[in-house]
Here is the input.
Amino acid sequence: MPQIIQIPKRKIVTRSEQTQPYIPNEYKIVSEPNYTSSGEKLIIAKNVDETTITLDSTKNQKITVKVLTNVRVLPDFGKIDEEWDELQLDWGACVQFQNVEGNWYILSSDGLKMS
Here is the structure.
């Protein structure tokens, strides 16, 4: 005896021409003297003579910091690369940090100043 199987109707998917919606925590432009990360993926520091950025391990596990000013980066606890209490970044530097087991590690950088 033949069995009748229902074939689902074909769905047509079209590509929308709309732009991606703004996601509020994708990036933060910092122009204040002190800032603590709050879940964004990218921080850009500019339009201020110098600033201090504290990396909050409760809200960020991985973050990139691009600086167009002088920036001091502090971990909320632990050390950076198990060695430094802070990093001083000069204009143009870009550093990617990852939090692992209570320390922030530098995954990649261009322009770190070891001083």
Q: What stands out?
A: The longest strand covers residues 87-100. Strands lie at 27-30, 34-36, 42-45, 50-55, 62-67, 70-75, 87-100, 103-112. The radius of gyration is 22 Å. The mean pLDDT is 85.
